[in-house]
Amino acid sequence: MGNRILVVDDEKPIRDFLYEALTQLGGFSIELAGNGEEALKKIEKENFDLVLTDMKMPKMDGLQLIAEIAKFKPETLMVLLTGHGSIDSALEAMKRGASDYLTKPINLDELMLRLRKVLEERQRFISLKDYAAELEKANQELKKIDEMKSEFVSVASHELRTPLAAIKNAVQLMLQGKTGEINENQAKFLSMADRNINRLTSILNSLLDLSRIESGKIVLKFEELDLRSSIEFILSSLKPQADGKSIQLKMKIAEELPSVYGDREKVEQILTNLLGNALKFTPEGGEISFSANPFENGGNMDMVAISVKDSGIGIPKDQLDRIFEKFHQVEDSLRRSITGTGLGLAITKGLVEVQYGKIWVESEFGKGSTFTFTLPMSKGEKRDIHFRFILDREFRRAQKNSSPLTLFLIEVMDERAEVKDALLDQLEEKVKQCLWRNSDITLRREHEKLLAAICEADLKGVQIIQQRIEEKVLKILTKDFDPPPVIKVGTATYPEEALSEKELFRIAQERLRG
Fold it and tell me: What is the DSSP letter of 479?
């Protein structure tokens, strides 16, 4: 039997005509209803692939029927039959959930074509939905396997480091002659073992760094950083290596370079990795230069770009896309004498990205390479970096889509730290339930003990959300404390109240403090 279609029309001749046409010519399974109420009763008891309804009917017209079906059976396809001059009603039906509309008098060829097209599109959608579900399942399984791999690498690295340290200590004691005299040949082999122990320790440390980055367990301490001092420190630390190869180290940093937000230790690790890499692949008498400048590429935040340029052997064009992959090492005769784990640039990329930056390379084989990475620029305010990144991203998205954006700031006003922490935990979950869309965001500003919510709502929507927060959240949460804490809410809406991100934050903050 074909697709099940419910025909709804208050005129019996039309119902009978459609029944005959759709069963005989279309091969569909047809049920009939004389009005909207009868149709709803049938839809409640049975499943239909499609409802074909007339526009003008007593008691409940086609628009009302479509709206009702969309509420409790949204998966049901709906097509509206309307008379000439009723295009506005047909378009309204489409807005309410109808898939298509047909005008009277009915053309049987067009009717069959349009119904089949709607049903075929539904089938394609179902197939795509099933395929997407399968992909999501496979993706989750891959994530699980990847997490298990990262966990194994982390545990194995930890377990190997302890016996390796013991072996190194033993070798060192023998080399120092503290376990008895050793001859020249023994010293040679012990020194070889010591070098390999150091190499293995370096590999284990790299694996641990990578597993922490991939599992999201890396600990970051964001602060305002002066890049000039960090670059100078790294240059002076690695200058002896550069002097050993007669390589010139230069620094070209913009005057009054803005500070950046980042983790000092991780930023210096990035700089060390990139400079160490440049020293490896730059021949004697070469040159390596550091530069840092403000960088704006229409992304989520104003950034500072830091570049490390060398006059080394360069990277073949066909390998540039893979240079940041784990364990990747460039294959060519010039590099055969240079060993490494192939993890340094993968770790560097991970460290840049967890600090909301990007990294890329430009290179010409035989002439040198330039590695550039970005870090978010400080804007002089004490804002959580994660909050700032999310707000910048959502504000730019609202500008691009010409859609409204509202920022909520919610603060617990109480001197008791334990009360603040307890309420913030509960507030975050409850406020999520008051927002409209799954894409709306809530996040904590830990430094100030604030809860922020960013949602796509205009001023009218804000009033409804704020009323929900006051009725369903604030009154309920504060009743368990004596004395009850005060919870304040500040809001600002783009573009009705604020035209810039800075203004949006300022207005919300002023209303919170007011």
Answer: T
